[in-house]
Specification:
heterodimer, A: about 325 residues, alpha+beta, 6-stranded mixed β-sheet, about 30% helix, globular, B: about 80 residues, mainly alpha, about 40% helix
């Protein structure tokens, strides 16, 4: 598991560093650099492990005054091992200092409901893809292979989030092709996945991603609150935390929803605030921001963390948007 | 030349903010700079408003330069 990251000259970041927790929630205004942070994590981990071919360099390095700035990063593991990667402006290859972690990989998930519910051809050793494709195939492999206990766990959690759902199964759609279907308590016939709501499909994909037999060592979830009822996050946040610890991986999710921040009351160091200062993205934890506010001096029930973030007192909110004419 | 005076308003929206800003200007006869917006979620209760005010003052106290602070609190309805 990665414990600390340092970034120099990557897209909107000039110089930033932050601690990561097993499950970290990233908040910030639109355009502050949340997605760039996820991209940095994906790129750096895949570069170190050799999973990334170092292509597309010019699109992710920071440019200033038409000069490429030297990109470098540091990843510190929970074991204390540190790997440093750097690439000078006009060099072709990265230089790495420190232990290379082969087999580690990171993946950004930007889930698209249609990709989750489409019928899929079942192939062995499949994983859930960036848009949720592969969810059906992974579920089938778990159910019919050695991972039936994991399939059962997915089903148990899914029923918590969608109480109407009675049974999760896979319908044979054609030769070697399957589609997810859900039997609901009030309906005679099972519902094919493409008739489920977007939120239901997304939660099923998230549960499948984290319960895969070999999940990525860094799971990066874009807009985790999309289609998810805010109350459900009270259950999802601890689940993501437990699974990350069990597999010794990191799960990092972005959100704009203050209710999700409320659910991090006991993990203030796991909320990462991204904000732009002088055109550059910065990183800090909510816990560090609270030190300057003496948050302990108020009752947290009066000022929940989500309200606090929304208020602007800890940063990570949009710059002034005003419909008023300038004075 | 006198130092700039800053006004911070913690309220639910832009209309409220405009009202309190004008009110402060009328009462004090001073034009303020407003470097940041602070917002409460709509329907937040007075306890949240009070907690927000306490945290706002705490924040000022951590500023490196000493400043004189005047606090206007609308109070409990």
């Amino acid at each position: 598991m990665i414990k600390h990251v340092k970034i120099r000259n990557f897209r909107s970041f000039v110089e930033a560093e932050v601690d990561l927790q097993p499950f970290s929630l990233v908040v910030g205004a639109n355009g502050s650099g949340k997605t760039n942070f996820l991209r940095f994590l994906e790129k750096s981990i895949n570069l170190v492990s050799g999973a990334d071919p170092q292509s597309g360099f010019s699109t992710w390095i920071r440019h200033s005054n038409n000069h490429q700035s030297p990109f470098s990063f540091e990843l510190t593991h929970s074991t204390g091992e540190k790997v440093i990667g750097k690439r000078q402006a006009h060099q072709d290859m990265f230089e790495f200092v420190g232990p290379m972690s082969g087999g580690k990989n990171a993946l950004i998930f930007n889930l698209i409901p249609e990709k989750i519910s489409n019928p899929e051809r079942i192939t062995p050793s499949i994983i859930v893809g960036p848009n949720g494709e592969g969810t059906t195939a992974v579920l089938e492999m778990l159910k019919s292979g050695d991972g039936e206990d994991l399939f059962d766990q997915i089903e148990v959690h899914f029923r918590k989030y969608v109480p109407e759902a009675e049974k999760l199964s896979l319908k044979t759609f054609g030769e070697g092709t399957k589609q997810i279907q859900i039997r609901e308590k009030s309906l005679t016939d099972p519902l094919p996945a493409d008739e489920l709501s977007e939120g239901t499909r997304i939660i099923l994909a998230i549960l499948t991603i984290i319960h895969q037999e070999k999940p990525p060592s860094m799971i990066l979830l874009e807009d985790i609150d999309r289609g998810l009822h805010p109350r459900l996050f009270e259950y999802l946040a601890p689940l993501l935390h437990d699974i990350a610890i069990r597999h010794d991986i990191n799960i990092v999710a972005t959100t704009h929803n203050p209710y999700l921040v409320d659910a991090m009351q006991d993990h203030k160091d796991a909320v990462i605030i991204v904000e732009k200062k002088d055109g550059a993205s910065t990183l800090s934890t909510l816990a560090s921001r609270l030190e300057n506010l003496d948050y302990d001096s108020v009752d947290p029930d009066d000022m929940p963390l989500g309200q606090l973030w929304f208020s602007g007192l800890v940063g990570g909110t949009p710059v002034r948007i005003s419909s008023r004419a300038a004075k | 030349m006198s130092a700039a005076k800053y006004l911070y308003i913690l309220c639910e929206g832009e209309r409220d903010e405009m009202f309190y800003e004008r009110l402060c200007e009328r009462i004090t006869g001073v034009t303020y700079l407003k470097p940041a917006d602070f917002r409460l979620r709509r329907g937040a209760n007075w306890k949240t408003a009070m907690a927000g005010a306490v945290l706002l003052v705490n924040r000022f106290q951590h500023w490196p330069e000493r400043q004189d602070i005047g606090l206007i609190n609308r109070g409990r309805q």
